[in-house]
Structure formats: structure tokens, C-alpha cells
Design goal:
Elements lengths: L3 E6 L3 H15 L4 E6 L11 E4 L2 E4 L5 E2 L4 H8 L6 E3 L7 E5 L2 E4 L4 E2 L2 E2 L2 H6 L5 H9 L14 H9 L1 H16 L8 H4 L1 H10 L2 H19 L11 E4 L4 H10 L5 E2 L4 E6 L4 E5 L2 E5 L1 E4 L3 H8 L4 H8 L3 E12 L11 E3 L8 E6 H4 L8 E9 L11 H16 L12 E12 L5 H12 L5 E3 L9 H23 L5
Parallel strand pairs: 1-2, 1-16, 2-12, 7-18, 16-22
Antiparallel strand pairs: 3-4, 5-11, 6-11, 7-8, 9-10, 13-14, 14-15, 17-20, 17-21, 18-19, 19-20
Length: about 475
Amino acid sequence: MTRVRIGVIGGGVAGLAAAYELEKVRAAGQQIEYMVYEACPQLGGSLASEIVDGSVLELGADSFLTEKPAAAELCRELGLGGELVPSNDAARKTFVVVKNRLVPLPDGLMFLVPTKLVPTALTRLFSLRTKIRMGLELLHPPRAAEGDESIAALVVRHYGEEALDRLADPLLSGIYGGDAAELSARTVLPRLVEMEKSYGSLTRGMLAAHKKMRAAAKKSATGAKRKAPPIFTALRGGAQQLVDALAARLDPASICVATPVNAIERNSSGWNVHARGTVQEFDGLIIAAPAWAAGGLLTPVDRELGQELSAIPYSSSITMNLVYDERSIGRLPDGFGFLVPASEGRAMLACTFVHRKFLGRTAPGKAVLRAFLGGARHEELLAQGDEALAAIVRREMSEILGAKTLSASVEPEHLRVARWRRGMAQYAVGHRERMERIASRQAALPSLRLVGNAYDGVGIPDCIRLGRKAARELAAIEVKASSGVSA
């Protein structure tokens, strides 16, 4: 059997998951080699964490949705099952900043959709006019989708501008670092689009879906009441644990860090990859770099494909971890943290009380506050120095939480800033159609796979799922080709 070679461009979690899958195939006896190229000096991409005096500081993504199994499954394969930590959902409460006051999200809110009458009626988050509109939303007739539209348009049609400003926009900003007026409803919230088509009212659609879920759970129950799974899951030692565990399973000779790929080109049997003045030949190629980088590499190969990839918008972000001695600050509000609507005119997008969200990852007596800045509206903040950003965040935290709780003059024991330039893909209006065009062009390049957060999900589980799937597909294609079987 002919030995096949597969190149992986990008050493973030998608690329590492792909390489891990290729290593499994190789260990099982298949004649395969692989090489991972990473432009940065370290692997992991936006997964990076540090442990400072017993407290975990997440510099990038801090957790993943439990309901998407790919990340937890991989952790267990790597022997990290005992390190998985559930979110402390018993204390789960999120606040929204409204005129410098912290207002809790009302009970019964299913993402953007209110499903409980009394909490919605009593909340201080919305005006009486918006509450009336939310009640009348139950009368919305079914509406067939007429092409894609922004999430902002969908939300305003059902619940009004105030719901967009105080609920939808800050929630989506916290997840995507984006703008609800730009994000695709059909791609980001396909379930709500289908509910509008079937029920008209999003509230009625969500209530019907919840009723079906309860009925299914009751039907499948064996007697004992099962505890609901946590919403989020993290690793006890931080996301870096996953990166390190993946890297440890790979052949060190197959990893090239601080090695940006300068160009790629097709040859008679596969691909040439140019990096650090050398050219390596591969039978298959997995590009796990951001879409804008993939577009630059692929434009000489397929101009239309390269242009489509380059057109996928990205936002940048900043994370800031501040570690305080709890005795130096007042009592924080009970909950996970707060979101900041754009209308508040602040630099911060959100703040997480890390020591509340995941128990056992913070040193005793310490409070870890994790602020998020940047996003689609504040790219200019990335040019600010650490001290300037820290001054902004400490002032805004003091104004929002109150000087008696956290005075701007109280120095944190540790402060860590991380910048992620063009790190989060934005699923803009028309994203699904763009993915169809990309898939059509990629079909003419059967030995190429594109993976990462730009295509089919922005979370850690999505990147892992896509990376492993791409590796399995390419390995299977190459096996058929080397065996003389038509692919």
C-alpha cells in the first residue's frame, strides 16, 4: 500500500483534532503521514489558559455547550474525563446593564424568547410598551420565510426595538462578538425561523417545543428523575489541558510551530505547501486556518473559492482577567455576571464572575472577573495598551457594580489581557448561500477540506467535529486511491 501524506494548515483546536484523528488512523496500521503547520509559536489558537497562584485564567474560549457532544467525547478519549467540570447552574443568573443598574434576565427566557407570563410582566428589563408587545406576539400568524434576514429584523418584528437592544444584541455580542443587525437569522437561529414559519408566534413555538421535550423525557424516564445536564462544561485546569493532551498524542516531528504557510499550489497528484523556504508535497490538505487566511492561500488555486472565503467577515475581541482578594471588594451580585447593551455606550461587552460559573477553579478567597471588549463595534480598542484597557475596565466595573463593591482604586492582584484579532467568524446575512457556493467550488478539489469556526458552528465542539470528520474523509479517499479503487 502506498504511503499517503496529508498536510494540516492551522494548529488551533480544529487542526489539532484533525491531526489527532490522522494519528489514530496511522496507529491502526494505515500507511499515512501528516504535518501540522502553525504560524504562532504555540498550538491551540484561541484556546489558551494559565494557572496563576491556583486560579485558572482563560485567555480565550473558557467552556463549551454540553449538549454538543464532540468536545466531551474527545476529552474522555484523551483521558480527561475526570477533569470535566460542570457549570454551577444552581447559581446561574445573568444581569443586563440598564442605565448603570444590573437588571436580571427574567425567568422562563429561552434564549431570546419569553415563555413565562408573570416573570416577563414583572421584570424591570422592559418597558410596559414592550411587555404589551410581547403579550400580543402570541397572535402572530405563521409567516413563510422570504429569503434570509438579520436577527435584528426577526426580533424587532416580534418583540420590538427595546427587546433587540436589551436582550438579543447583548446576548449575541457575548457569543459572536457581532452585531444582530448583520448576523443571519437563518444560519444563527434556524430554529426560530422554522417556528415562525410553523406557528407565527415565537413564544407559542417555543412553548410547543418545550412541551414535546417534556413529553419525550417523561416517556423515556425509567422511574428515577434524571438530573438535567449542565449548560456549560469546562476543564478543571483550563482549556490548555485539551491543547496539551492533543499535542501529546501527536508525533513531535509532525508539528511545525512558528511556521506560517506562504503559499499552496496544486500538482499532478496533490498539493505543494510552501513554508519557511521549503516545499512539501501532500496527497491531501486540511486548511484549519481562519477563512480569511484560507482565502488568501486558495485564491491562486481557485479565484472564486478564495474570494468567497475572504468575504466571510470576522470580528476581533479582547479578554481581560482580573484576580482580586475577596476581602478587598464588596459582595458581588449573585450570578454568573452581566451583559452590556451597545446603547449603554461602554467599552465592555460583558463580564463573567468566573469563580461563580465554575467551582473549584479559583484559589480560596479569590474572585476572578473576566471582562470582554472589542467586538464588531469596537475594533479600535485592540490598539490600546494593557494599562489603558485596564483603566477603562476598572472604571466601568466600578460604575456598574458600585464603588462600594468594586472601587476603581482597588488594585487587582493579577491582570492578564489577551487580544484575538479577526478571531471570530461572523455568520452574516446570506451565510448559508455562501457556504453552498464554497461547497460547490470545493467539490472540484476532492483532496481539500476546510474546517474551523467559519463554516458550521463557532463553538469548540463544532471545530472538533469538523476537524475529525475532515481527517476521516481524506484518509478514506486516499486509501481508495492508493488501492486503485475509484473514489
